[in-house]
Write a structure and sequence with these properties.
The chain contains 3 helices and 60 strands. By secondary structure, it is mainly β. Among the domains are: 62 residues, no CATH class; 137 residues, Trefoil (Acidic Fibroblast Growth Factor, subunit A), CATH 2.80.10.50. A 14-stranded parallel β-sheet has the order 8-9-11-14-17-20-23-26-29-32-35-38-41-44, with no helix packed on it. Strands 10-12-15-18-21-24-27-30-33-36-39-42-45-48 form a 14-stranded parallel β-sheet, with no helix packed on it. Strand 6 and strand 7 form a beta hairpin.
Length: 734
Amino acid sequence: MTYSDDGVRVSVNGQLLIDNWTYHGGTWDWNWIDLQAGQLYDIQIEYFQGAGGANLQLWWQSPTQAKEVIPQSQLYSDLAQGGSTYFVSPSGNDSNSGLSPGKAWQSISRVNRQFFGPGDSILFERGGRYMGGLQPSGSGSQGLPISLGAYGSGALPVIDGTGHESAVMLFNQQYWRIDSLDITGSQRFGVFISGNVANQVLHYIRVTNLAVHDLYASSRWDSGLVMIAPIGDRLTFDDVIIDGVTAYNTNLWYGIHVGFNLYYGYPTQPPLSTNITIRNSHVHSVYGDGITVAQSQNVLIEKNVVYETGLAPAGISYTPNAIWSWQCDQTVIQFNEGYSTHSYGVDGGVFDIDWGSTNTTIQYNYAHDAQGYCVAIIGAHNVTTSNSIVRFNICSNNGRSSWLAASQGDVFITTFDGGSLDGVQVYNNTAYWSPAADGAWIKGRNISLSGILPRFIKNNIVYSTTQSLIDIDDSIPLERNLYWLAAGGTALWKRGSTIAASFSDYKKLTGQDSNGIFADPQLNDPAYSGVGMPVLSFTLKQTSPAVGAGASWANMGSSDFFGNALPVNGSADIGADQIDSSAGLNSAPSIPTGWVQVISKNSGKCLDIAGISVAEGAPLQQWACWGGDNQKFQFTAVPGGYEITVKNSGLQLDVAGGPAAIQDGAGVIQWPYWGGSNEIWRLTPASNGYFSIVASHSGKCLDVAGISPNDGAPLQQWSCWGGDNQTWQLVPIQ
């Protein structure tokens, strides 16, 4: 079946099944054909786009197969386009050709003996367990990568590397995609992509939808669950995407790492890998760092959740953090959540701009319950860290270690070993600071500064339960910050050699924060430190003194933490929330904890599981509200947002196709919750108590296809544009 806008024709093995060669809006077409499991069929699709929107989706359904978008793993490349597909199954035989499911190979050792070329695919049957270290040979080419993945139905195929250094390894290879595998058991690396050639660039690496877990061996610093790191002199990577990876349970060091050369040290001017993205991934329960990138340029780290890092004892490596970079240029770290970070010594924080980094922005993140800091800016090792920007983040309940709270604070600015900082901007962040022992929210002493790039600490909200608010050199200006000592007592500001016990004395003696405020910021739920990105917590009430009290300037960003636009003219608000007093955005609509109907603003109809189905894969539609259990949903906080449970089936809402399904038009179904980012939803307040419901993995909105008001209109994800068909009201069931 197809969902198309406009014309579409579909033939299977030369038989024309769908022929709707007309101009039309979003339309379903379907036909039936008998297919034999395990056999390949030639599918030909023709499509044209007329006016308006463009959309084409290919779905399937059978008496035993729920309706869903056909998974990418079930679509194989045309052999005429330069590739063969090889199948591996526990029931196969290594003397087979491997070229069909019925002629599958059986073992990893057989795969390792084959040389693969551009456009080839190696697919392991789901539900199987394959022992050994997988190291396939060959490289793809531009437009024709080699694919390593899964076929069939059921659990991901397990690559068990017990007894091997790596479970999956590529070495001096490029143009590869690794997708939909469960990787475990190896001794040093789960996935290791590297090379030892000198002065080369290895291109196009995709690592998606993997589970990499339970690797335990002798702990060492140069080890990890997913590692893309060269060992050749001046060898680099270009165009690397890691997406939808879950990495956990190990006494190895890194959860996910890209870039750092494991053999050659480059204290200055390192060769840089380029165009690195790590997104929609979960890392937890690791000995060292969660997600790191080093010696790279054009880096994006977004929409990840990292927790329970830094579990190692002393003596293995440096002190760890959750998400950080060093010796990188043009890095953006955004929309991430990090918490429960640990360290045997210093650090133990969530975010960190570290030595030798240039042009780094940390924005729209949520850091909570860390032993150490929310964020650090560090210059070290005789090089300069320059143009560091920390903005529109929420920091809550960090400093759980008494010693780290006192020595580092929540925002830690420091230099050592001959390093310096050129350009430090910390603005429009909101902090709930309630450390295990008294220590300043921002800490920065004996900082070595250089250069002429802007440096300031501005427009921040500090909601503190401990008396020390700042403890910093007199070299970085502070302005328009709002402080509050919620516990009462005497607040302290320490700047340079001045210690002030009142806000008026602090301003008078230091000349700082001349337009700053000492008052209750009137935040909604200011002490929230739960798992899941804040939705209403830390937003400003209409009467907050922070409203309109901040400075604004060009290039301060386009939106706040919650996605609200910043003012084009006039004053900004202080903190991570930009209130819209005319729209009433911060009237604090609550998210009910019980069962709710989810009603479209566009149609007034309810979210509904088609046919009152309890089957996995049943699609979501809108239908006139009638009170059935297939129209009742519950929102439960999970890391990164909410899972949405259907009362009728006990299943959860899921974007069909997995975390890799980030395209407009991907359908929404019910499916058992497994923690995938395509099953996690964020709620963004709209006006008058309504919400947008946003898929965590794609950033796209829950959308009624075609802006339809009709019963049966399918639900999909679509780029958020603010339409009423993307706006929802949560109505509690009485």
